[in-house]
C-alpha cells in the first residue's frame, strides 16, 4: 500500500490520491503519542498473530488447506506496518496469514479474525451477531467490546497488554480456543457478560 | 607356597569359594554397570518427556510474553524431586522464566539452539528443549536433574550385591565343605594305604575300589603296582637261594685248582718258595726244602727270617747273601736274577718274581735252581776256545784282542808278524807300537776310527797303509769289534787285520784307466754322458756343465731333461722310449738351452752297452753342436721361399729342357701361369702348341738356335693358357754346357707381362690424347731452385701458341716465355704454391718467339709418384688475350650503365622535386581561388548602386537623406558596408600572404635541387644530419601527403668528407623506398626512423620503416639492376644506391624478417673522426 512513484504528486488516479491523503494525515499525528502507541500496538499485533495459532476455526471456513487465515482490520489501522511485518512469512496451523483492511463491517464476514479499532465498537454492535454466526474471531481493544458480544478484548494491566476472553461468544461462533490461550487470559467469561 | 601344602580338602573348599566369589562379583558388577547405564537413559527419557510437556505448556506463555504464566508452569516441576533447576530462554536467549529447587543460586548457560541432553561432571543431567510454536522456535527450555538419584541408586545396588555375595559365599562354603568329601575321601584313603605299605612292607594290602572316575583308575593302578611288587619280591627270594647254591659249587672248584697248583709245584725241578710282605713263607714245594735241607719244623712255622738264617749258613759269602736278600725284600716288585755259591761247591741260580694279585704285589716267588752241572759244561767250552786260539795263530790275517781302553793287548795272532814284519812280543810290551807303523798320512784317520770304537762304535772297518821295518808299504784292512759281557759292559775289543795290498794295487790301476777315459771324455768337443738302462744319468762331462750351466749333481738322474727346448721335449721323450723299447740307437736333433737361456741345435746320439745276456747295462751318448748347419739349412730354405715369392710377385717362373731327352721342367710358378698341375712334365710338342702363330715358330727357332750353338734368347710372345686366357709372356733362355762344351740343357725364365703390355697400351692412348689436345700442355721436372724446373715435355698446341718448337723448348725453363711486362707477383705466388706442393692458377703476360705479348692463363698441378713425392709439374696453358679484351669492353659498358642509372636517379630526384612543387602549387591555387571568389562577391558593387541613387536625387539630396525613407537608411547602410569591406580586405591580405609563402617555398625547393643537380665527384665536407634533413625536406611534401611520421634518432652527428651528391642520392633513395613501403602497408601508423651512429671506423645511417617488409628470397636480389616489386618501379633506385655506396667505399645492408615486418636499410661509410663529434 504505497503511492505511485510518479514525479507529479497529484497526477494519480482518484483512489490512490485519496489513500495518499489518508497516509499524509496519519503521518501528521503528534509524534510523542505515536511513539507510546507504537510499542503497545507492536505487542498487540504480535498477540493478534499468536491468537491465530491457538484458535481453531470450523473446517468449512476454509475452501481448502492452502487458504490463508485472513485478519481484517475495521476502522483506522493502528498498527501501521507492524502487523503486516509480523505475519509476513509466518504460518499458523500450516496456513499463511494475510492482513486486510476492511472498508466496513459488512466485509468482515469473509475474514477469519476481525480487529475492531477503539472507536468502532459502536458501529460494530449490530454486526457482531452476524460475525459470530459467520465464525469470525472478533478482537477489540474497547472495554465494552465483551459486553456487546466481542470475543477477545485487549486490556492494560500494570503497563502490560493482557486480554480477556468471552468464551461464551466464541463458542457461539463455533471457534475452539486452546486451553493454553485461556490459561493466559486475565478473565474468561463463560456467560455473556452483563452490559455496562 | 602355602596353598601347595594345604590338604586336598581345604584346597577344594578354597577353589569353590574363589570361583563362586569371582563369578558373583563379576555378575553383580556387570549388573550395577548396566543398571547405571540404563538408569541414565531412563533419566534422559523421563526428563525429555518432562521437558517436552513443559515446553508445550509454556509455549503460549512465551508467545504472549507472559512470564508469570511461564513461571507458574515451571513451578509445576517441583513434583520431580531430582529436578534442581529449570528455566525458559526467550527467542533472544535471555532468561524468560526460571525455577530452582534449592536456595543456592544456579548459573544458567545460554541455550545451544537445538535439543541437547548431557551429563556434566557431577552426574547432573542437563536438557535443552527448544519450544516450538507452529514449527517456529520461540524459545528454549532448560532442565537440570541432579545426581542424587543416580548415586543413591548406585549405593543401594552395591549394598544389595555385597549382602548377596556374603550370603552366597557362606552357602558355598557349607556346600563345598560337605561335598569335597566325594573327591578327597578316596584320595585320602589311598594315601593311608600307601603309607602303610611303605612303613610295614605289607605288599598284600589293597586299597578299596570306588567308581570308575580318575580316582577309581588311580586306585586300580596303585593296586596293580602292588601286585607287581609282590611278584618281584617272590622272584628275589628264589634268586637268593640259587646264589647260595652256586657259591658252594665255586668253593669246590677252587679246592680242585689249589690241589692242581700244589701238584705243579711239586712236579718242577726248581725249589720254589713264596714269601709274603709280612715275611711269612706262605707256600713252598718239597724241592725247595730238599735243596736247602730244611728241617720240616722250620718251614711248618713259616717264619721267613728263620728260613733265611738257615740258608745263610750254607752259602759261601754269607754277609753278601743277607744283604742281597734284604735288597730284594725292599723291592719286591722287581724281578731279579743272581747266582749264589754254596759252601759245598754247589752253585744255585736265584730268580725272584713278584707275586701279584691283580696289580698289587703281595709277596715274592723265589726259584732256586741247582746249576752246578751247567758250570761244568762251561768249563769244557773254555777248552774249545783254546783250540780256536790255535787256529787264529795259524791264519795269515792278524787276529787281536785288546782291553776295552785299547791300552793293553790281550792277544795277537801270528798273522801280525807276517803282515807287519814285527814281533808280537814288542807289541805286548809296547801296545802303541802298531800306531807308529801306520803310514803317516793315514795315521790320524786310523786313530780317530779306533777312538770311536773305544767310545761307543760297536764295529769299525778302516783301510790304511803301514810301513814295514824294511820301508815297504802294505795296505791293510782292519776291522774291530766291541765285546760285551752279560750286563752290556764293553769288556774287550777284538779285531782282524787283513793284508789287502794286492787288491789295492789292482784298484789303483783301474782308477788310472778310468781317469784316462774321463780325461778323454772331457777332451772331446762333444758333450759326453752316461746313463743307466732306465735313463738315469750318472755322468756328464765338463762341456755339458759349461754349456748348460747345470752342475753334475743337478744333471744327475732325470735332471738332464731340463735344458731340452719345451717344444722338443715330447719328441725327445718319444725318441728315447723308442730307443729303449726297440733296443735301437738313440738319434735325435733338438735344441738345448745354454747357461744364458739361449738355444742351440744339437745332434744327440747314444748307444747301449749290453751284458752277455744282451740286456742293456748303460747308455753312452754324445751331444754334437749342429746349430750352424741347421741355420745354414734354414737360410737356404728361406732364400728358396723368397725366390718363390719373388717369382709369384713378378709372375716369373723358371724352365729347363734337357737337350738329350727333350724333357721339360717347369717351376710351380710357370705351372700356375699356364694352369698346369705342379710337378708334372709336359711333352715338348704340347708345350709348343700353347703358343699361337706366329709366336710358336719364333720360339721353336730360338730354342733350336740356342740348343745348337748356345745363343741365348729373350723374346716376347703370346701364349694360350689351359684355361683359355691369352697372356703376353717374356721367355728368355740360355744354354748350360757340359765340360766338353756341348750343350747339356737349356734353361731360362718365363714371365707374365700382360699387365705391362696393357699399361703400355693405355700410356700410348694417353700420350696421343696429350699430343692431340688443343690446349698447350707442358711438363717440367720438380726442380724449383735456380735455374728452375726444366721442361721435359710439350705438346704440339704449345708450339702453335708460342711459336717455339719442341726441340727449342725441351731442357729450357718456362722463363723462356716471360718478359718485361710479366707480373712478378704472380710468379712469386706460383713459386710459393709449388714449394708447398699446392696447385697454382694464374694469369700473366707472356711473350711469343716473335716477341709479341699475349695474356697467358695457366694452371699447374704437381705429379706425385707412388710414394707421394713430387717428381714433376704439369701445366695447362691458355691464351686469353681475346677474352681479356672482351672483359675490358664489358667493363666500359658497365660504366656507361652506371652513368645512365645515375641520371635515372637524377630523374627520380626531379620527379620528387616536381611533386613537392605540385603540392605547394595546390595551396597556391586554393589561395588564388579564394581571393578570386572574394573579389567576385565583393560588396563594392553596391557602392555603385548607392552612387546611382545619389545621382538620381542629386537635386534634393538633403531632403532625400532626411525625408525619404530609403534616404534615411543610407547612413546606417554605409556604416555596415564599410565594416564588410574591411573584413574582405583582411581576408584577401591573409590569402595573399599564404600565396607569397608558398611561392617562396617553391623557390627554395628549386634552389635546393639546383644545388644537388651539380656534377658529382667533388669531395665536400658535410654534416650527415644536415644532409639527412635536406633529403627529408626535399621529400617533405610527399611524406606529409602520405601522413608518414618521421622519427630522427641522431646518435652521432659525424662530419664526413665525401661526395655529397652521391650520399644525398642514397639517402633520398632510402627515404623514398621507406615511404613507398609504408604506403603499401596500410593507411595508419606509418613511421620511418632515421638513425645515425658512428664509431672509430664507420658512420652508419639506418632507415627503418614499418612497411610491407621484404620476403627472404628478395633480400639477396634487391640491389640487382632492374629488380623492383612495384608496378611503377624501374629497379634503378636501390641498384644505383648500391653502386654509389660502393664508389664511396661503403656498403649497403638490408635487414627484414619477412613480409609485413618492416625493413631496415643500412648505409655504412668509412669514417675518420677528425675530432669530437657534435
Give an overview of the whole structure.
Chain A is α/β, with parallel strands linked by helices and 196 residues long. Chain A contains 6 helices and 10 strands; from the N terminus they run ααββαβββαβββαβαβ. Chain A has helices at 14-27, 31-54, 82-87, 121-134, 167-172, 179-184; strands spanning 55-56, 69-74, 91-92, 95-102, 113-116, 137-140, 152-157, 160-166, 176-177, 187-189. In chain A, the strands form 2 sheets. Chain A has an 8-stranded mixed β-sheet, with helices on both faces. In chain A, α4 (121-134) links the parallel β5 (113-116) and β6. Chain B has 1174 residues and is an alpha+beta fold. Chain B is 50% helix and 24% strand. Chain B contains 36 helices and 37 strands. In chain B, strands 2-1-5-4-3 form a 5-stranded antiparallel β-sheet. In chain B, α2 (8-63) packs antiparallel against α3, α2 (8-63) packs antiparallel against α4 and α28 packs across α36 (1133-1143). The mean pLDDT of chain B is 84. Chains A and B meet through α2, β3 and α6 of A and α2 of B.
Looking across the biggest beta sheet of chain B, what order are the strands in?
Answer: 2-1-5-4-3
Q: What is the percent of helical residues of chain B?
A: 40-55%
Most strands sheet of chain B: 5 strands, antiparallel
Overall pLDDT confidence of chain B: 84
- Largest interface by residue count? A-B, 17 and 13 residues
Beta-strand residue percentage of chain B:
15-25%
Assess the beta-strand content of chain A as a share of residues.
15-25%
- Compute the average pLDDT of chain A: 77
Query: Order of helices and strands of chain A, N to C?
Result: HHEEHEEEHEEEHEHE
Query: What is the assembly state of the chains in this entry?
Result: heterodimer
Helix and strand content put the structural class of chain A at alpha/beta
Task: Quickly count the helices of chain A.
Answer: 6
Uncertain ranges of chain B = none
Number of strands of chain A: 10
Largest sheet of chain A: 8 strands, mixed
Amino acid at each position: 500500500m504505497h503511492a505511485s512513484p510518479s514525479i507529479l504528486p497529484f497526477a494519480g488516479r482518484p483512489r490512490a490520491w485519496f489513500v495518499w491523503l489518508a497516509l499524509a494525515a496519519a503521518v501528521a499525528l503528534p509524534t510523542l503519542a505515536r511513539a507510546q502507541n507504537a510499542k503497545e500496538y507492536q505487542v498487540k499485533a504480535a498477540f493478534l498473530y499468536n491468537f491465530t495459532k491457538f484458535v481453531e476455526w470450523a473446517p468449512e471456513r476454509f475452501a481448502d488447506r492452502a487458504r490463508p487465515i485472513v485478519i481484517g482490520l475495521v476502522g483506522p489501522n493502528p498498527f501501521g506496518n507492524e502487523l503486516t511485518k509480523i505475519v509476513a512469512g509466518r504460518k499458523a496451523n500450516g496456513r499463511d496469514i494475510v492482513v486486510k483492511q476492511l472498508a466496513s463491517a459488512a466485509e468482515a464476514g469473509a475474514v477469519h479474525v476481525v480487529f475492531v479499532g477503539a472507536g468502532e465498537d459502536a458501529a460494530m454492535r449490530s454486526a457482531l451477531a452476524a460475525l459470530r454466526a459467520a465464525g469470525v474471531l472478533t478482537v477489540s481493544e474497547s472495554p465494552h467490546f465483551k459486553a456487546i458480544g466481542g470475543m477477545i478484548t485487549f486490556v492494560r494491566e500494570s503497563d502490560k497488554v493482557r486480554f480477556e476472553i468471552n468464551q461464551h461468544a466464541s463458542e457461539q461462533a463455533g471457534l475452539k480456543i486452546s486451553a493454553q490461550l485461556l490459561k493466559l487470559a486475565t478473565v474468561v467469561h463463560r456467560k455473556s457478560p452483563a452490559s455496562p | 607356597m602355602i596353598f601347595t601344602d594345604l590338604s586336598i580338602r581345604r584346597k577344594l573348599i578354597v577353589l569353590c569359594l574363589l570361583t563362586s566369589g569371582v563369578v558373583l562379583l563379576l555378575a553383580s558388577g556387570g549388573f550395577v554397570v548396566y543398571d547405571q547405564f540404563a538408569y541414565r537413559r531412563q533419566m534422559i527419557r523421563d526428563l525429555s518427556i518432562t521437558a517436552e510437556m513443559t515446553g508445550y505448556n509454556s509455549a503460549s506463555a512465551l508467545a504472549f510474553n507472559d512470564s508469570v504464566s511461564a513461571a507458574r508452569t515451571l513451578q509445576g516441576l517441583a513434583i520431580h524431586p531430582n529436578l534442581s533447576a529449570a528455566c525458559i530462554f526467550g527467542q533472544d536467549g535471555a532468561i524468560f522464566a526460571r525455577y530452582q529447587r534449592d536456595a543456592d543460586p544456579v548459573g544458567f548457560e545460554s541455550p545451544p539452539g537445538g535439543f541437547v541432553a548431557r551429563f556434566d561432571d557431577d552426574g547432573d543431567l542437563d536438557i535443552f528443549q527448544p519450544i516450538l510454536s507452529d514449527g517456529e522456535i520461540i524459545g528454549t527450555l532448560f532442565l537440570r536433574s541432579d545426581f542424587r538419584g543416580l548415586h543413591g541408586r548406585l549405593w543401594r545396588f552395591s549394598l544389595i550385591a555385597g549382602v548377596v555375595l556374603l550370603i552366597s559365599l557362606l552357602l558355598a562354603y557349607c556346600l563345598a565343605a560337605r561335598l569335597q568329601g566325594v573327591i578327597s575321601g578316596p584320595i585320602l584313603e589311598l594315601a593311608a594305604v600307601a603309607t602303610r605299605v611303605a612303613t610295614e612292607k605289607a605288599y598284600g594290602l589293597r586299597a578299596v575300589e570306588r567308581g570308575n572316575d580318575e580316582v577309581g583308575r588311580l586306585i586300580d593302578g596303585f593296586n596293580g603296582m602292588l601286585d607287581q611288587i609282590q611278584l618281584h619280591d617272590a622272584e628275589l627270594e628264589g634268586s637268593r637261594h640259587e646264589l647260595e647254591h652256586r657259591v658252594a659249587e665255586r668253593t669246590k672248584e677252587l679246592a680242585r685248582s689249589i690241589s692242581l697248583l700244589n701238584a705243579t709245584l711239586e712236579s718242577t725241578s726248581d725249589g720254589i718258595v713264596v714269601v709274603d710282605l709280612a715275611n711269612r713263607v706262605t707256600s713252598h714245594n718239597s724241592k725247595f726244602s730238599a735243596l736247602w735241607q730244611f728241617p720240616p719244623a722250620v718251614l711248618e712255622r713259616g717264619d721267613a727270617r728263620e728260613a733265611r738264617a738257615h740258608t745263610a749258613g750254607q752259602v759261601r759269602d754269607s754277609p753278601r747273601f743277607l744283604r742281597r736278600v734284604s735288597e730284594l725284600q725292599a723291592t719286591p716288585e722287581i724281578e731279579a736274577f743272581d747266582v749264589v755259591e754254596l759252601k759245598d761247591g754247589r752253585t744255585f741260580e736265584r730268580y725272584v718274581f713278584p707275586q701279584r694279585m691283580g696289580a698289587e704285589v703281595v709277596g715274592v716267588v723265589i726259584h732256586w735252581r741247582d746249576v752246578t752241572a751247567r758250570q761244568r759244561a762251561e768249563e769244557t767250552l773254555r777248552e774249545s776256545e783254546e783250540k780256536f786260539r790255535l787256529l787264529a795263530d795259524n791264519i795269515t790275517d792278524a787276529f787281536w784282542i785288546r782291553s776295552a781302553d785299547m791300552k793293553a793287548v790281550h792277544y795277537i795272532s801270528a798273522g801280525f808278524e807276517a803282515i807287519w814284519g814285527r814281533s808280537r812280543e814288542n807289541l805286548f810290551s809296547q801296545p802303541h807300537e802298531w800306531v807308529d807303523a801306520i803310514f803317516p798320512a793315514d795315521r790320524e784317520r786310523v786313530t780317530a776310527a779306533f777312538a770311536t770304537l773305544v767310545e761307543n762304535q760297536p764295529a769299525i772297518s778302516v783301510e790304511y797303509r803301514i810301513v814295514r821295518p824294511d820301508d815297504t808299504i802294505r795296505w791293510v784292512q782292519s776291522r774291530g769289534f766291541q765285546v760285551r759281557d752279560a750286563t752290556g759292559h764293553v769288556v774287550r775289543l777284538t779285531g782282524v787285520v787283513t793284508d789287502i795290498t794286492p787288491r789295492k794295487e789292482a784298484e789303483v790301476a783301474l782308477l788310472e784307466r778310468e781317469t784316462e777315459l774321463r780325461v778323454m771324455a772331457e777332451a772331446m768337443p762333444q758333450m759326453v754322458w752316461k746313463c743307466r738302462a732306465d735313463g738315469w744319468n750318472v755322468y756328464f762331462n765338463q762341456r755339458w756343465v759349461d754349456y748348460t750351466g747345470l752342475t753334475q749333481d743337478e744333471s744327475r738322474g732325470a735332471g738332464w731333461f731340463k735344458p731340452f727346448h719345451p717344444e722338443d721335449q715330447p719328441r725327445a721323450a718319444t725318441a728315447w722310449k723308442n730307443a729303449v723299447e726297440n733296443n735301437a740307437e738313440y738319434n735325435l736333433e733338438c735344441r738345448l738351452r745354454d747357461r744364458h737361456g739361449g738355444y742351440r741345435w744339437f745332434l744327440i746320439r747314444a748307444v747301449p752297452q749290453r751284458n752277455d745276456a744282451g740286456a742293456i747295462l748303460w747308455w753312452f751318448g754324445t751331444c754334437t753342436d749342429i746349430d750352424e748347419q741347421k741355420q745354414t739349412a734354414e737360410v737356404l730354405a728361406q732364400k728358396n721361399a723368397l725366390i718363390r715369392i719373388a717369382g709369384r710377385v713378378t709372375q716369373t717362373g723358371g724352365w729347363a729342357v734337357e737337350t738329350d731327352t727333350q724333357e721339360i721342367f717347369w717351376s710351380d710358378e710357370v705351372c700356375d701361369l699356364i694352369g698346369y698341375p705342379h710337378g708334372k712334365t709336359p711333352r715338348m710338342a704340347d708345350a709348343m702348341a700353347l703358343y699361337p702363330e706366329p709366336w710358336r715358330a719364333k720360339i721353336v727357332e730360338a730354342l733350336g738356335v740356342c740348343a745348337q750353338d748356345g745363343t741365348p734368347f729373350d723374346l716376347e710372345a703370346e701364349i694360350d693358357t689351359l684355361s683359355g686366357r691369352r697372356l703376353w709372356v717374356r721367355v728368355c733362355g740360355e744354354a748350360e754346357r757340359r765340360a766338353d762344351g756341348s750343350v747339356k740343357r737349356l734353361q731360362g725364365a718365363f714371365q707374365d707381362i700382360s699387365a705391362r703390355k696393357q699399361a703400355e697400351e693405355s700410356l700410348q692412348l694417353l700420350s696421343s690424347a696429350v699430343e692431340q689436345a688443343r690446349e698447350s700442355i707442358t711438363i717440367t721436372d720438380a726442380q724449383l731452385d735456380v735455374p728452375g724446373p726444366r721442361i721435359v715435355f710439350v705438346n704440339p698446341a704449345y708450339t702453335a701458341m708460342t711459336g717455339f718448337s719442341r726441340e727449342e723448348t725441351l731442357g729450357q725453363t718456362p722463363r723462356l716465355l716471360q718478359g718485361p711486362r710479366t707480373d712478378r707477383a704472380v710468379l712469386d705466388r706460383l713459386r710459393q704454391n709449388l714449394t708447398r706442393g699446392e696447385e697454382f692458377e694464374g694469369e700473366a703476360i707472356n711473350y711469343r718467339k716473335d716477341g709479341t705479348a699475349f695474356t697467358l692463363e695457366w694452371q699447374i698441378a704437381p705429379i706425385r709418384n707412388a710414394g707421394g713425392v713430387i717428381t714433376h709439374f704439369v701445366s695447362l696453358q691458355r691464351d686469353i688475350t681475346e677474352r681479356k679484351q672482351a672483359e675490358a669492353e664489358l667493363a666500359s659498358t658497365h660504366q656507361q650503365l652506371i652513368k645512365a642509372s645515375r641520371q635515372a636517379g637524377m630523374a627520380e630526384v626531379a620527379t620528387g622535386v616536381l611533386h613537392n612543387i605540385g603540392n605547394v602549387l595546390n595551396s597556391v591555387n586554393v589561395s588564388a581561388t579564394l581571393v578570386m571568389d572574394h573579389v567576385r562577391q565583393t560588396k563594392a558593387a553596391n557602392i555603385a548602386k548607392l552612387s546611382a541613387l545619389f545621382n538620381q536625387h542629386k537635386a534634393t539630396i538633403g531632403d532625400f537623406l532626411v525625408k525619404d525613407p530609403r534616404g534615411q537608411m543610407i547612413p546606417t547602410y554605409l556604416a555596415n558596408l564599410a565594416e564588410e569591406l574591411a573584413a574582405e580586405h583582411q581576408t584577401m591580405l591573409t590569402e595573399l600572404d599564404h600565396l607569397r609563402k608558398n611561392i617562396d617555398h617553391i623557390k627554395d625547393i628549386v634552389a635546393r635541387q639546383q644545388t644537388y643537380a651539380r656534377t658529382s665527384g667533388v669531395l665536400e665536407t658535410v654534416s650527415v644530419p644536415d644532409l639527412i634533413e635536406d633529403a627529408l625536406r626535399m621529400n617533405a611534401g610527399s611524406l606529409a601527403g602520405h601522413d608518414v611520421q618521421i622519427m630522427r634518432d641522431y646518435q652521432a652527428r659525424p662530419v664526413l668528407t665525401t661526395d655529397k651528391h652521391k650520399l644525398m642520392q642514397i639517402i633520398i633513395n632510402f627515404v623514398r623506398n621507406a615511404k613507398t613501403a609504408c604506403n603499401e602497408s596500410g593507411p595508419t601508423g606509418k613511421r620511418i626512423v632515421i638513425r645515425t651512429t658512428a664509431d672509430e671506423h664507420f658512420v652508419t645511417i639506418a632507415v627503418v620503416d614499418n612497411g610491407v617488409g621484404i620476403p627472404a628470397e628478395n633480400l639477396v636480389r634487391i640491389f640487382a639492376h632492374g629488380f623492383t616489386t612495384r608496378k611503377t618501379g624501374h629497379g634503378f633506385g636501390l641498384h644505383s644506391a648500391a653502386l654509389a655506396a660502393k664508389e664511396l667505399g661503403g656498403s649497403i645492408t638490408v635487414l627484414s624478417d619477412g613480409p609485413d615486418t618492416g625493413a631496415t636499410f643500412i648505409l655504412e661509410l668509412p669514417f675518420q673522426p677528425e675530432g669530437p663529434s657534435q
